[in-house]
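Here is one chain, start to finish.
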Amino acid sequence: MHDPSRVRVSGPLEVFAAGFAAELARLGYRRTPATFQLQLTAHASRWLQREGHGVNELTSEVVERFLAERRAAGYTNYVTARALAPLLGYLRGLGVAPPASPRVAVGAVEALLADYREYLAVERGLTSDTIEGYVLAVRPFLDGRLRDGDALDLGALSAADVVAFVVERCPTQSRGAAKMTVTALRSLLGFLHLRGVVGGPLADAVPSTASWRLSGCRAHWSPSNWMHCWPAATAGPPSGAATSRCW
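Its structure:
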């Protein structure tokens, strides 16, 4: 049974934990989500202490750094800014945390992701949590296309480039993270095609999660042998295809 009172918070946020728990109760949070919020608070407080930050330094940029490290540590839940919104709202209401910073697109990747966020929100009608999940999943792909400092090389993007990214990244991810990578990458490539940034419908080149379920096969793969075996690089092998060591 989840019990908010059993969560121990140490570090800079310790003195605010009881008040935050009371605020969650006032807002109608049930025991389980309240417990998760306090566990997230405990993690954030430990991180702040390790980084040498006080609550007055809990800026939007510091929050993003914490969330990035939380994701890198393998967490899959409560990894977006929305997850921290209740805590930040409470702390900002007390006047102990700085107000949110406006999002400013800096650099080619951030500028493109800003356009992509708007597309997902306005044209696709996705929620902010889903949008941030997509953005987090495709950012490494875009980072890998940076050339000459801050120029994005997308005009010459090929199906082999797409497959190479998936084959390199997805076998190291959990099932859920790999599915998000595939879904988000298809969405991004569709967006780039609609905007005329890439010349073809490269979303069709993204393999499905079934193609890397056996991580031991990774050593046998390369973009060239994938494209040679299944040129369309679609969701799976052709109907009736012979059993392969990677299927």
